[in-house]
Amino acid sequence: MTEKMNVDEAITAVMRDVTHLGKNQKNSHQGFNFRGIDDVMNIVGPSMRKHGLKAYPRLLPEFTREGTKPTKNSTAKTVDIVVEVVWRGPDGSELVSRVAAESFDSGDKATAKAMSVALRTAYLQTLCLPTDEPDPDSFSYEIVDDGAKSEFIEKMSQVDDLDELRKMQARAKHAGAEKEWREYGITLANRAKAG
Question: pTM for this structure?
């Protein structure tokens, strides 16, 4: 008779089977890609069943907060929750993870959405499921002054009227010199007060 895996061994076996999960869905409102709960369950479920790993989510009511926020056309419900997920291995051993989640819904689905987010997050974090995409920190960008900023600052320094300076705000933004524009405005305002 073979010995049953404990929860750590079962989680490790699932991690060996499921090595990554891309962000295959797109948020239509903000335009970002994400990994939905169905994507996670579809890729993780078969391996969990194969290795006898189970997950039992439970809401921790003492950490639940509900509220409302006005939207353009109505009021939406907000839900902030903490969910505890009990992972159980074939031998009955358990591991517990906790995740926080929040949701926002103008209908009656705020709590269900928050629970889905919590479960998805628990699966992704416990099973360490990367997206298999380049790490954002692997890229670095060096901003190059193409001369527009220097040119703008030189022209701005010749202005001695606050109203004229205010008219230059859009050009300051375009040249990447908003900070310098604000600082020069403070200098001009101080000169006007003193003089």
Answer: 0.62
